[in-house]
Specification:
By secondary structure, the chain is an alpha+beta fold. It has one domain (6-179). Helices cover 35% and strands 26% of the residues. The protein is built from seven helices and eight strands, in the order αβαββαβαββαββαα. Strand 7 and strand 8 form a beta hairpin. Helix 6 (158-167) packs across helix 7.
């Protein structure tokens, strides 16, 4: 890692480890390939096992903030999933590349995955939302000279993205609440 980015990625990793105390946390260097590596050179994905805070797996990027920070503030991303699978590490690398490669994701944005979240799932997009499953203590990560905001990448369906475009983010989140979705269920029914 470069000298400028190392402290930020280490601070994000320390923050995630402190938040998920009692959980096993593994830092995975994912090989995104030489062209993509130029865009996200220091990317790591933190893989968090189930434990006292959550019975789901969590996957967190570490390496986006230093590339995209503005005035000391930038983003990292978390995804929750029912199992440990290399697929979710790959998706986090995809999110990091998409974000740092010019699309600059933010709260209430969405991105197409281009295929189902997992085989057989109707979720084929990711919605950038507040990390409701983990709360503001994970979301707000203080860094030297700024802070990283860790946002949730929630798998959603094309119909849900279209609903959000027409009715707004809050209306979609209301549908999620009313349907009491299980966000880690890749086979959940679409709410729209």
């Amino acid at each position: 890692m470069s000298d400028a980015r190392l402290p930020a990625a280490e601070a994000v990793e320390s923050h995630v480890r402190a938040f998920f105390i009692g959980h096993a946390v593994e830092a995975v260097d994912y090989d995104v390939g030489p062209e993509r590596r130029a865009v996200v050179p220091d990317l790591r994905v933190l893989v968090v096992a189930p434990g006292p805070r959550s019975d789901s797996w969590a996957y967190v990027t570490a390496g986006c903030w230093a590339l995209m920070e503005k005035h000391g503030d930038g983003l990292e991303f978390v995804m929750t999933a029912p199992v440990r699978d290399q697929r979710f590490v790959e998706l986090m690398a995809m999110i990091a590349y998409y974000h740092c490669g010019g699309h600059q994701l933010d709260l209430q944005h969405s991105m197409p995955i281009g295929e189902p979240w997992v085989p057989g799932s109707t979720c084929d997009h990711l919605l950038i939302s507040l990390p409701y499953l983990h709360g503001p203590d994970l979301e707000h990560c203080p860094l030297s000279g700024g802070h990283a905001r860790i946002l949730w990448t929630l798998p959603v369906t094309t119909a849900e993205v279209e609903f959000r475009r027409h009715h707004g983010h809050e209306a979609l989140e209301q549908l999620f609440d009313e349907a009491e979705i299980i966000p880690t269920d890749p086979f959940r029914a679409s709410v729209a």
